[in-house]
């Protein structure tokens, strides 16, 4: 396996759902990378706006995976990563949503950030339209990183991290084979928190400020902005993560659990309709404490080629 910028095979995975114009922009940006990607696996999550046609029109660079139902971001990334591993022999997998537009040097800088190191994950600086750093995708610095690690990282222009976002996350393919895929039943929210901390438990990762992507969300919102009914997923998935996942040590669950509670309090305080959040919290607490996420082979059954790839990756 190659970890050097000159020879690394990078396969991008883009999860798409009803944003065809943005998807076209993302695919054009990926085709224009200064360090070229080997292939782009586009997972169309049962879009109704001809996103699949946009992917097909992008040519041979794109491997289109059309799903018959919407599996959410978590299921889409699990499916796309499995197909990338099964069909394209990547050294690294580069993850992003269909509203994440990488600058031309984004991949080159990510690879430079990990070249010659034992880092297995790298994340980009995520900006909004106006160049502001997007608060929704801020990485978590690695707590208690050793002085030598911090100093070495600073000399390279990177920052040691404990988690990062699927909005431009580069992960080593051999690590994906070792730890498995994102948990599809998370559907949306916290799937990248769980997965990146799982990949980085006992391993190193870096934030690379020189690698820039633009996250073209409608508003510049942070993680404590009012999510409405989607607050259910925030609560349920955090409970699943803290109770079921082995991605965090016990002391980390206390640390990040406490910060989650404080963020929930801020979310309630700023909400224009607290009854919606209260309903999401009750349902999320119920499902997060009484149930557990299904194995991906069950959650993503019946998806044809994608299901076959998922079964093969998780069996190994």
TrEMBL record:
Record key words, sorted: Glycosyltransferase, Transferase
Pathway terms, separated by semicolons: Cell wall biogenesis; cell wall polysaccharide biosynthesis
Top class in the EC scheme: transferase
Any Pfam family hit: Glycos_transf_2
Domain named Glycosyltransferase 2-like: residues: 13-171
Source organism superkingdom: Bacteria
Molecular function in Gene Ontology: glycosyltransferase activity
Transferase listed as a keyword: yes
The enzyme's E.C. designation: 2.4.-.-
Family that this chain belongs to: Belongs to the glycosyltransferase 2 family.
Record's protein name: Glycosyltransferase
Organism in which the protein naturally occurs: Agromyces indicus
């Amino acid at each position: 396996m190659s970890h050097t910028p000159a020879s690394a095979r990078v396969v991008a995975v883009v999860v798409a759902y009803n944003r065809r114009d943005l998807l076209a922009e993302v695919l054009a940006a990926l085709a224009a990378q200064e360090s070229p990607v080997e292939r782009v696996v586009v997972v169309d999550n049962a879009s109704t706006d001809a996103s699949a046609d946009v992917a097909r029109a992008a040519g041979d660079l794109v491997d289109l995976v059309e799903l018959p139902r919407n599996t959410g971001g978590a299921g889409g990334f699990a499916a796309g990563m499995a197909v990338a591993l099964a069909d394209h022999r990547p050294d690294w997998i580069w993850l992003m949503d269909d509203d994440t537009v990488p600058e031309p040097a984004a991949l080159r800088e990510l690879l430079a950030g990990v070249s010659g190191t034992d880092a297995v994950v790298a994340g980009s600086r995520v900006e909004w339209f106006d160049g502001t750093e997007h608060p929704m995708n801020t990485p978590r610095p690695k707590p208690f990183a050793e002085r030598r690690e911090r100093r070495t990282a600073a000399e390279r222009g990177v920052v040691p991290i404990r988690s990062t976002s699927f909005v431009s996350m580069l992960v080593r393919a051999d690590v994906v084979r070792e730890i498995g895929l994102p948990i599809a039943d998370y559907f949306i929210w916290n799937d990248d928190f769980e997965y990146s901390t799982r990949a980085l438990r006992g391993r190193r990762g870096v934030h690379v400020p020189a690698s820039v992507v633009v996250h073209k969300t409608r508003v510049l919102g942070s993680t404590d902005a009012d999510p409405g009914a989607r607050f259910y997923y925030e609560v349920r998935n955090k409970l699943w993560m803290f109770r079921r996942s082995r991605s965090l040590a016990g002391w980390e669950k206390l640390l990040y659990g406490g910060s989650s509670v404080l963020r929930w309090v801020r979310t309630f305080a700023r909400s224009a309709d607290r009854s919606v959040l209260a309903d999401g919290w009750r349902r999320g607490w119920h499902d997060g404490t009484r149930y557990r996420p299904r194995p991906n082979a069950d959650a993503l059954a019946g998806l044809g080629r994608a299901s076959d790839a998922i079964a093969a990756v998780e069996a190994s």
